């Protein structure tokens, strides 16, 4: 049961990154993208030969987490971007980041900052895994470093030695 919940939450994070990317690239309304994702990707069974449907093996997500991430990251975009900017080294600026890397980082920052029910190490691991879904190069390590740095700032008590 717990593993199934974990898979649904991981799937929600990956889907949220995809939805946020779509919002950014198409300048679409967040609610329109949420509805489209929920209706076209998970609510209707895919029929054999339905070529218009995505046939990815993505597990059904935790829809509440998915919606919270998409709405929350969108609503707090400027605040999250400012936190991200402050966590980058001097040679990196937000403008240098690929859009998907920036969205992954901002989603991770949102969870570290707002979703205090999720342990910071879980947040970091989950978003490094998401980065691995999109990249084979150094990007997952970059995501790990930035989120680790921010986690220690945003949740220092979680990193104190017992």
Describe the secondary-structure layout.
Layout: H1 2-26, H2 30-43, H3 63-75, H4 77-87, H5 99-114, H6 120-134, H7 139-154
Helix pairs in contact: 1-2, 1-3, 1-5, 1-6, 2-3, 3-5, 4-5, 5-6, 5-7, 6-7
What does this molecule look like?
- The protein is an all-alpha fold.
- 68% of the residues lie in helices and 0% in strands.
- The protein has 7 helices and no strands.
- The chain has helices at residues 2-26, 30-43, 63-75, 77-87, 99-114, 120-134, 139-154.
- Helix 1 (2-26) crosses helix 6.
- It is globular, with a radius of gyration of 16 Å.
- The chain starts with a helix and ends in an 8-residue tail after the last helix.
Based on the structure given, which CATH architecture is correct? Orthogonal Bundle
What is the CATH third-level topology name?
A: N-utilizing Substance Protein B Homolog, Chain A
How much is the average pLDDT? 88
Oligomer: single chain
Cα-atom Rg, whole angstroms? 16 Å
Q: Kindly state the number of beta strands.
A: 0
The N- to C-terminal Cα distance equals 30 Å
Q: How much of the residues is beta strand, in percent? A: under 5%
CATH class: Mainly Alpha
Major sheet attributes:
none
| Helix share bin | 55-70%
Q: Would you list the SSEs in sequence order as H and E?
A: HHHHHHH
Helical segment tally? Answer: 7
Q: What's the CATH H-level homologous superfamily?
A: NusB-like
Shape descriptor: globular
Structural class: mainly alpha
Number of domains: 1
Q: Low-confidence spans: pLDDT under 50, at least 5 residues?
A: 44-55
Domain NusB/RsmB/TIM44: 11-152
Protein name: Transcription antitermination protein NusB
Family: Belongs to the NusB family.
InterPro entries: NusB-like_sf, NusB_fam, NusB_RsmB_TIM44
